[in-house]
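@channel sequence for tomorrow's demo:
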Amino acid sequence: MNILVLGGTRFSGRAFTEHAVRNGHDVTLLHRSAEDPGIAGITRRLVGSRDPNEGDGLAQLESLIASGQTFDAVVDMCGFVPRVVRASCELLAPVAGRYLFVSSVSVYRITADGAPDENAPVIELDDPTTEEINSAEAYGGLKALCEDEVRRAFGDQRSCIVRPGLIVGPNDPTDRFTWWTRVLRTESAVPVPEPGGAATFIDARDLAAFYLHCLEHDHAGVYNAAGPSERLTLPDFARQAHAALQSETELVAAPEPWLLEQDVQPWRDIPVWLAEDSQSLHRASNARALDHGLRLRPLADTARDTAAWDTQRQSPELTAGLDPARIASLVAMRDTARQ
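structure tokens (generated this afternoon):
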């Protein structure tokens, strides 16, 4: 296939681009950064913003199309604002076979007990013209509106909407999952929220393989792409990662109310942990995606590979999670409370 990737140079986008090239497909990239991403085997690389108000990315595509270029598929890794997605779709609909849009499970209303499947209602913004992503609701609502633009241009049979959960694995710029693999290798003890709620995530490489599978098999419609294949609580997740890394770190049970009293916040301070009223984000049904070819590797493999990548990059300061001093302080407080 001849595939156009919008974005595609970082993390899950990079994983897809590399996977598509390895599987013999021709890949054209359009991305903003002038820095060469160093992905071997791509057919061409266009540098420019796809936002018509900011750059000439679409103008470059238009010139390519005028020369006779067509695409079997488009994979949109970086659509966040409906206006920008609309411009891309209107240009590409006449010359592309199908359009795969990377959305998010954040399109669903966030609740304490929901378990949304693909038919669940999505967020409707009070102001659909906003372009400010200043909250989880705004992010999810804008993603839902972007999905509408894709369907409007490509129709139901030529559009594929994938809604990933938390994306993890090597090359993760957020360090959320990496925080766990780091502390389980370097700290003597770490607090683990109890009961902790659910914990779901998907390896970027599994997500990349699913994107390509959808294109190769002409899948249309909407798919929640989340893992792992077995549903886990956060303590389950910590224990499995601990075992995979052969960690000697003590897992210290820390009641959620106690952590909140210490101003330890879900997600911000202990990644993967979600607040009680936000559990639906970790409960989106992945049944349809599994039925249509999603394959999920074991947590142990992702943990080991992420730890190896973190070591290879020389373990820089993390951008997420509690720092070592704060971890040690919390563990000491729990030890005192248990005496």
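heads up for whoever presents: The mean pLDDT is 96.
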